[in-house]
Amino acid sequence: MFQQSSQHVASYYAHSCADRLLQRPALEGGQDTEVLIIGAGFSGLHTALRLALAGKRVTLLEASRVAWAASGRNGGQAILGWSCDMPPLEAALGYERARRLWDSMRWAGQELRELPGRHGFDCDYRPGHLWTAVMPRRVSILTEWQHEASHKWGHDALQFIPREQLPQWVASERYQAGLFDPEGGHLNPLKLALGLAAAIERAGGHIYEQSKALNYREEGGRYVVSTERGQIRADVLVLACNAYLDKLDPQRASCVLPVGTYQVATAPLAPAQAEALLPGNVCVTDNQFVLDYFRRTPDHRLLFGGGCTYLGGMPKDIGAATRPFLERVFPQLKGVELEYTWGGHIDLTLKRTPDIGRSGDLYWLQGYSGHGVLPTLAAARAVSAAILGDDDELALYQGLRNDSFPGGKYFAAPLEAIGKAWYRLRDSI
Predict the structure, then answer these.
(1) What value, to the nearest 5°, has the Cα angle with vertex 131 and ends 87 and 332?
(2) Bridge-partner residues for 53, per DSSP?
(3) Which residues are bridge partners to 344 per DSSP?
(4) Using CA atoms, how far apart are residues 417 and 308, in angstroms rounded to an integer?
(5) What are residue 179's phi and psi, to 5 degrees?
(6) Which pLDDT tens digit goes with each residue over 39-96?
């Protein structure tokens, strides 16, 4: 499995949070807790905070550092919805139950806007998401979603942006049209995670870093989890490891495929140049199968990503791999210095539907498939509510079937890579 580290990768986010990267202790000896959460990414942090505020004794174990993996490295795009979009959810759950999941996503968007102020931290949140079409034949995808969102899911705030108006939003000739969502936004994900961690500790929760969970077992009606230097007993166990679950729970790990993804941050641009690229300061994605995504930072950089690798590794030179796509969108940035380049791993499910569930007092949250900033919050609400006695919302997620990847441990990734190559070819035709 992927090597974990005691330090955050050298990303723009780690640079921007250098004064906040506190070193937390490792678990030593034996302890007891009510709820033990393994994994201090968004899923684990949101779940822990909600439970700690409800009065539960909560402990988080993190193999590396808080938000060391995808939660501290992602594109920072808080976009409504799931990677699979709504049709698979409606097919599995029916309209009424799928509508409840959609409403929980809109709640998550609102909650994320309010949560930092409520707990006294800043995460550079900026409102607005622009979804674009590169190909003329895909403009209809935007208009169809606008109509469906309004008439079927009750989301009537989407605004269609025709090609002639796009220069007011993004300084690129690449796009045919856009769809603006004021309920989406973008943020610094590592600042969000660190703010959540501090709020958990103020609420009485405990976080241990450098404490990889080696195994767990049921004993005497409780869960016992061992690390290299300690052991902890809990009434409730929550697995929030995502792409790093691996041997801790092979059965559930077989339902997700770790996929590499990467992005870059330019050196600071002149303020006027940065503002001209994205006049409305929204985050942008496109509707290609292998999409580009980008946004501005408060210090006038452009963050740009979209590349992915299905065989687990990363390009030897992420900057060289990403530059052609950045300059394809913004030729005016040809030769721009790329000051930070980094990558990480996301966890795909076979149908791109989230894998959130429980078995007795064991819970798990995974399978966000590269679209997790808001879905992790919505899922954490469902799981924390179930732990507190109301499993009505969690039952919605449990209605989604997530099977193991065909091909098993050795062939799942190559099969997915072949599929991705076909869709990339289709995008280029």
Answers:
(1) 150
(2) none
(3) 261
(4) 10
(5) -135, 115
(6) 999 999 999 999 999 999 999 999 999 999 999 999 999 999 999 999 999 999 999 9
Cα-Cα-Cα-Cα torsion 122, 124, 126, 130, nearest 10 degrees, comes to: -140
Kindly report, residue by residue over 364-391, the tens digit of the pLDDT.
999 999 999 999 999 999 999 999 999 9
Give the whole-angstrom CA distance, residue 47 versus residue 54: 11
User: 257-301 pLDDT, tens per residue?
Assistant: 999 999 999 999 999 999 999 999 999 999 998 899 999 999 999
End-to-end CA distance of the chain: 36
Is 121:199 a contact under the CB 8 Å cutoff? yes
**DSSP states along 100-143:** HHHHHHHHHHHHHHHHHHHHT-----EEEEEEEESSGGGHHHHH
Three-state secondary structure readout of 301-355: CEEEEEEEECCCCCCCCHHHHHHHHHHHHCHHHCCCCEEEEEEEEEEECCCCCCE
Residue with tokens 């309004």: 150
Q: Report the candidate in 298, 243, 300, 247 with the shortest Cα–Cα distance to residue 271.
A: 300
> Which pTM was predicted?
0.94
Tokens of 99: 């509508």
Q: Which residue has the tokens 């705030």?
A: 157
User: Can you name the residues that pair with 340 across neighbouring β-strands?
Assistant: 265
How far is 163 from 178, CA to CA, in rounded Å? 8
Q: Do 239 and 232 touch, CB atoms closer than 8 A?
A: no
CB 363 within 8 A of CB 238: yes
289 and 137 Cβ atoms separated by less than 8 Å: no
Provide the 10 A C-beta neighbour count for residue 251. Answer: 8
pLDDT at 190 over 90: yes
The CA distances from residue 223 to 25, 236, 240, 299, 385, in Å, are 22, 7, 15, 46, 20
